[in-house]
Amino acid sequence: MQKTTYLPLLAVVSFTLSSIICEQVRAQSSQLNSAVPIVAHRGASKDAPENTIAAFMEAWKQGADAIEGDFHLTKDGEIVCVHDANIKHYTGKNLEVRNLTLKELKSYDFGKWHAPTFAGTVIPTLREVLAMIPEGKKIYIEVKSDASLVPIMLEHLKKSGLTPEQIVVISFHTEVIAAVEKARPELKTYWLTSFKKTAEGTQRPSTHHILSTLRKLKTDGVSTHYDGATATRVNDVQKAGFEYHVWTVDQIELAKRLYATGVQSITTNIPGKLRAGISPPPK
User: Fold this and answer.
1) 173 is annotated as an active-site residue
2) pTM surpassing 0.90?
């Protein structure tokens, strides 16, 4: 009798709870999709040559919240926006950025490799990139050179007119993060790292190592390759008081899964498509 009496009631309660949970998940998903920033990896680099003004302008057109660019120091102490230390991939010339002056670098074509329509594109300087950050948007500056670049970069940032809230400095080099934190602690910095599998099947660096590094550097957070961004790791890092960001994601469903873990930004080569794929439909 008790089973006959209470099973329908339990079913109703179960259904009601399920409905509530589903509504909460949908609400959380909508909030994530509209609130988590999209960072354009080297600009909108699927549609324009990476790390060029054309790619950054395209990123803004596609609705990116921020752009990410890579920066090296030249022979004459200028800072230029380019990923590789050697420019062969872009220009066909087997030359190192550090051995070239800005004038020499500006003489090479950094666009034709991507598509003939971009022929004549020149390498931009940090100052030129900073000058095209709109109000309310951000730049993620990845320092590829060593910490000797930092004082020059900070001087350019001071003169740029950008607010500290618009600037994020990221690097795999711990000495770069430490130098920025010491000189300009009000600027956001994130330590970059990726993961490798050990023979035992675990990932390195461990969460413990990540947290130890973040505390030592006094940085604001970590930005990792997406394959290590598990819900547990993201939660552990955030519970310790740090931010968790991921790169580089071009798959819509993967981005949705990552957003569900609570990551605080995602870097992508396709900001427009990613935005369209994860945004909730208009009411």
Assistant:
1) no
2) no
Q: Report the percentage of the chain scoring pLDDT > 90.
A: 83
Determine, yes or no, domain membership for 123: yes
Greater model confidence, 8 or 88: 88
Q: Does residue 74 fall inside a structural domain?
A: yes
- Cβ count within 10 A of residue 218: 12
Tokens of 157: 């940032």
Other CB atoms within 10 A of residue 266 CB: 25
Known catalytic residue at 41? yes
Please identify which of the residues 83, 114, 173, 245 carries the catalytic annotation: 83
H-only helix segments in 36-114: 53-61, 88-91, 102-106
What's phi and psi for 24, nearest 5 deg? -65, -45
Residue-range definition of the domain harbouring residue 254 = 37-278
Name the domain count of the chain: 1
